[in-house]
Amino acid sequence: MTDLTNKTGNFSSQSVQRLEDVRQRPFWRRPWVIHVVWQMLAISFILYVAWSIVANVSTNLPRSNIGFGLDFLSLPTRFEMGPNYLDATAKSPIWLTFAVGFINTVRVSILGIICCTFLGLVVALARLSENKLVSNVALVYTETVRNIPLLLQMLFWYGFSTLLPFPGQALNPAPGVFVSNRGIYMPSPVMSPLHYWGFVGLLLGVVAAFFVYRFAQNYRKRTGAVHKPALAGMTALIGLPLAMVVIASFGMSFDVPELKGFNFLGGTTITPEFVAVLVSLSVYQSGFAAETIRSGIMGVRKGQLEAARSLGLPGSLVLSKVVLPQAMRIIVPPMAGQYMSLTKNSSLAVVIGYPELVRVSTAVISETGRAIECITILMAIYLCLSLLTSAFMNWYNARIAFVEK
Amino acid sequence: MTVPMTDIPSPPRPPQKGLVTWIWQNFFGSLGNSVLTLVILWILYKAITGAFTWAVLDATLAPATIRECIDAGGACWAFIQDKWRLILFGTYPFDQQWRPALALVLFLLLVIATCIPASWKTQERKRWMFGLWLVGILLIGVLMSGGLGLPHVEIRFWSGLPLTVLLAVVGMAACFLASILLALGRRSSMPAIRWICIVYIEVIRGVPLISLLFMANIMLPLLLPADVTIPNIVRAQVAFIMFFAAYMAETVRGGLQAVPDGQYAAAKAMGMGYWQSMIYIILPQALRITIPSMVNLFIAGFKDTSLVIVISMLDLLGTANAAKADPEWLGLFIEAYVFIAAIYLAVCASMSWYSRRIERRISMRQQH
Q1: Which residues of A touch B226 (CB under 8 A)?
Q2: Architecture of domain A94-149+271-400 in CATH?
Q3: In terms of CB atoms within 10 Å, which end of chain B has fewer, N or C?
Q4: Virtual torsion, Cα A274, A275, A281, A287, nearest 10 deg
Q5: Where are the domains of chain A?
């Protein structure tokens, strides 16, 4: 016993001693001095790296006869991009080619996001199924697609296009539709001014549907009675544009692809690169999306479900008003990260030659030698996309966050 | 007092169900369920018989030419039999390829030994494990590059599976250290250091790995002094480390945040300084909970090594591409891709199985 008290006594006197030590530490061991020194070191290291990069670049560039600056963006591209939305050709300026690459990246990413979400939802529901067969098939699917590199999957799907016949012997599964190793060719409607009325109708329909739902909501809040908005909303959303399209379709003509020389001309073309990128991205990411959705739905506490049922809510309302809103809170943040990684993963399409941002950058680099500028532009665009996504997610998260009362 | 132990009634067992009832309830409980089961069964039947016909019944084994393969209509395993050493070991000298094979086996054994929890039970076993790893790494290095009577093989000839494993393992080991520093920096109370880490992590996480690889391959020579040349493999490795360190740092940060504040306070109360409390108190706890996410990152890293083909390095995917480019076997690609996909799948699926096991162990420990 005496030993113990002695020890405690010693300990406390020691710690008092230590406290005094801190106050009387030599100058270079005081916390604030250490902080300042560390930060100075870090900043000077960064500055040194930046300075040596600038110094090396300014000696290396003149020697290799490559200019520096963004002036090259207005030079002609000097390579063909293939058919694109902006009608960029080999004569268009380089910045337009970058815009085409950007559009292609965004296009395949958005389509990929839609497909992978849908596929992922189906697989997630399958994994949650009571049917053991269904849930095990879904398990094998997610484990397989997640554990094979995306690049390998992309090359695999792309490889199949080489098995298709040349344009000369193209398959013709439907009138006007041709399938060859250069892509799928389909007739495209020739745009007439009347068609724009179809889009106007769609726009009007969306606005009208919005107001119908607003009215129904207010009506319910005021009177408590349910005003079914679905029918009126659907009529506005589908009926209006449909009517417009029907009107517009008088005198509509199709541009049918035709074999001219070694390739088809006219109509719209879906390239094998695009199909391979879209399929592999959607399949690969759907495995991850499925896991996220599944864990989100499983994360809703059982009591919530039981409470909703005991209130007598019908099954559809239990799902839409109780389970999904809570599951969304768990699902949305990781899902946003996955959408972002899908967008970044679309850069792998450079390997099979889909003309997205990275492909455009590498082509421009080999044409002009402006590696520093091109890679900086490339990184800046992706960085902006990801910052935009995370800003949107923060806003969305704040909106759906649980409000404690 | 005298109640014999055997008289204590055991808890009631759930009523035994027959196999037929079980199948009936699980697969044919309702009309929708039955339809679903039948549809899935039909699809499975079609897929399995189709795959079996392609891979076994119609397949062609060596010796065969590509013509015979195409005529048979199934898988051309003769192609793989001809090319498997190229796919696995790439440009490594042909008569020396037993060396990378042995190195891979050695590495696999080391990993298996490490993954068994029993080998970390006592202090003595831990010391043994570190010794084993040291000896193992030395042996692997000698096997791969030469020495001790083995002819020297330059690093640029290393390719195929050994290169993939090397990129992944060295990359992740270096990432581990870098990510701890980054994560600690991001939680530091020093604003300059904190902001440097935040900007680094967020910028890297915002750009694709491919852009870093291009940077390392095309841009780096312009950024370095003209007389400095760095081998391809090192540049790819550095880009790889830079990329995954940012992701791993976020994982480590999650672990650091999960350590209760009391632990930090207790370490301080013991009179520990910053590094002491981190190394002995905080990090061991933080890293333990991040093991499952670390394994997931490792899986991602192992898969993403395949990206080095964009800077024309021959990893496992690169050698498969090289094999299918052989004019003698032109037009065959499915066999080569299925072969390497099986390798990737086996490695990644076993890692993900292991991570799920650890996760279960950790959650069990937390419940008790």
Answers
A1: 56, 59-60, 63
A2: Orthogonal Bundle (1.10)
A3: N
A4: 170
A5: 2-64, 94-149+271-400
